[in-house]
Amino acid sequence: IKGRYMTRYAFYDKAMRDQMIEEQMIVRNMEYALHEGQFVINLQPVYEIPSKKIIGAEALVRWNYPKGPIPPSKFIPIFENNGFIVRLDRFVWEEACKVLRAQIDAGYNPLPISVNISRLNFYSQDLLEFLQSLIKKYDLQPKMLKLEITESAYMENPHQLIAMVRAFRGNGFSVLMDDFGSGFSSLSMLKDLPVDVLKIDMAFVQEVDKSSRAGAIMESIVELGKHLNMDVVVEGVETQEQLDFLSKIGCREIQGYYFAKPMDKEAFMGLVQRSQDI
Ligand code: C2E
Ligand code: CA
Ligand code: CA
Ligand code: CA
């Protein structure tokens, strides 16, 4: 028994040590990586059903670390702890604005791009001014840039977030509630927070085949969106069955591997061009 305990202890110890080493590596390299252009954005299209037309995209950060890509699930939580996410997010927003500008310069009808706003950004006094300066710099309309926020920002400081969301919308930006339904206060938050779009948490759609409850909840959220005059996006759609279900319950906007995975800027621009060729 003692020997067994020792091996398990050694196992946890090693796993924890590996994780610490990886975390230190990430923190040690982040500044240089940003400076050297190792961070890039990918764009994942959002489609409308039943037309199957592309109607927008979400910008997602990627770290092309020279020894191999590091997934966001590894570095985002670390950057949310040490504050670097604020700089990285601003970089991503600017990259998204460049893609909007590139669409206009190419003569396309620009598709809106949504960007993630980590909760730490809400502690910056100049958040709105920064976004406005980007819109100005790239000569865009604020409605082209959609702002994705999450419940965690609300839970930390509801009054401040409500004021910020009002200010965003008052200045022409659209606001999305990301991962809707994944937190503890989704409904009470919705009561106070005037967002334009609900993005239903991936966990629901990925369970519709197994659980009729997940399906019933999704159907109710789509209905709720209609009553509150909000668009509803479902993300994480991977199969034809899921798509069929969503069409049946009257869902109109979909993001998921079934239609397209996140892709680099060049591939995205090609897709936009083909979608607008008539
Ligand atoms: P999220 O904002 O909920 O983004 C959606 C995630 O789901 C993305 O993962 C996307 O690639 C993935 N996804 C989309 N469709 C499907 C599907 O059909 N099946 C499955 N299994 N996954 C799908 P990604 O890019 O790895 O990002 C993970 C999370 O990291 C994001 O979740 C977001 O919370 C965070 N993140 C990514 N980029 C940024 C960023 O620029 N800023 C901030 N603050 N967070 C970011
Ligand atoms: Ca998101
Ligand atoms: Ca999400
Ligand atoms: Ca998320």
TrEMBL record:
Domain of life: Bacteria
Domain spans labelled EAL: 23-276
Name by which UniProt lists this protein: Diguanylate cyclase (GGDEF) domain-containing protein
Species in which this protein is naturally found: Selenomonas ruminantium
